[in-house]
Amino acid sequence: MQLSSKLKGLQVTLTGNPAEFTLEARIYHSIYMVAFIALGYNVPFNYFVGLPWVALISLIGLTGFAALYYLSRVKKRFTVSVIGFGILGNIFFVSVFFLNSGIDGPILILYALFFYLLCSAAPKNQQWIWLSVNVVCVTAIMSTQYLYPATVPATYPTVLSRFTDGVSAYVVVIVTLFFSLRYLRSNYEMEKKSAVDKALDIELKNIQLELLNGEKNKLFSIVAHDLRSPLASIQSYLELLTAYPLKEEEKKEIELKLLSLTKNTSNMMANLLSWSKSQLEGVRVNIQHLYLLKTLHDMLKVEVSMAQEKGIHLTYHINENIFVKADPNMLLLVIRNLISNAIKFTDAGGNIQLIAVVEGDCKISITDSGRGIEEADQKHVFSLKAKSTFGTNNEKGVGLGLILCKEFTELQNGSISFTSKMGVGTSFVVSVPVPDQDIPSSSQESQLSEWL
After folding, report:
1. What percent of the chain clears pLDDT 70, i.e. is strictly above it?
2. For residue 111, what pLDDT is reported?
3. Which of 63, 67, 87, 81 is nearest to 27 (CA)?
4. 3 state DSSP class of 423
5. Is residue 281 part of a domain?
6. What pLDDT, in 10s, does the model give residues 14-25?
7. What is the pTM of this model?
8. Which listed residue, 199, 200, 368, 451, has the most CB atoms within 10 A of its CB?
9. Nearest to 356 by CA among 387, 334, 374, 329
10. Structural contact between residues 114 and 107, judged by C-beta atoms closer than 8 angstroms
11. Considering the domain boundaries, does residue 338 fall inside one?
């Protein structure tokens, strides 16, 4: 098994990696392996059977083919190398024809083998050219021998040497055809498997794309419907304010409802725009060393006010010395969405608590005493399959907030998780990295004093 693996590795080294070379180029390089073995064998063989000039020509051919192999395999000049291979090969076999008894020697069968190997690797637009060259060359050398027999001397000193050379040529042709066909068949099967795998991969991606497009179409239809509803309510409240004389208490109540509807609609639009941008353009992450309390403070004051208007007690506990490595805009979006969801699904008189602690990473937990998430829906919380639900005051959402929370948290090298129990409440935990311990404390103190 180890030997087989080493031989396969050697073959890839000599013929080229499929990632770098085309199938034609790899076949072409494998032809050179055959040529090197055949010519390396023929040089001493022809010398010992009494054909020194054939041995010399074979040695010159071996050197030339080695240079052309280097040109293709190392310099990656495949087309130029193929042309050189065709020219040198035809010159070589024409020369050997006149040095090795012409038609009475084995050269024609070897010449045919060379043509087969050349056309196996040559680009399609060159094959007719090489066929024409082969036919012209063979016709010319055979006509020359027929018309001028003296130009092709008998070179075999004995019948045995001629017999041995013929048998040797036959063996070379058969062995070359066998291994070249095996190599071609092996590469054909490999390319076929690769094509099948690619087709299956494309089919799978098409199915996934169709499903994703279906989910997006569903999402945008929900968005269109859900934006229409709060906008219609805002319009109705404004018409009430302008069309009828109302008491101060009634105006105050309508104004609070308008503020709540506007904030909820604004959050929906912000989430939709952030998600759409991330899908179309991708997201750029700007990781910084952030003072956590400073980053979240203004947003938390607004959320505390919104919670108070709904009669919910929202508190937060963040140590003033906590620094994190995060994108400020992404971190704000994540925490704001989680708090808004907690407010949305918590009844008046409920409690929401945000606590940040450093335990390896910085863990920011948002825990509410709201209605909780049904167990059947928990597995879809971070996906487009999440159901669009109403809050305790009929606040509406499209389910994008938590998708963005997960995506943006992970882009900041963090993680998000949750636990929930119906009728008891829900707790989300966002984990974000903290700076290395070797950050100078003076830098932290500077940011802290600047904010304070």
Report:
1. 78
2. 87
3. 81
4. coil
5. no
6. 777 777 877 778
7. 0.45
8. 368
9. 334
10. no
11. yes
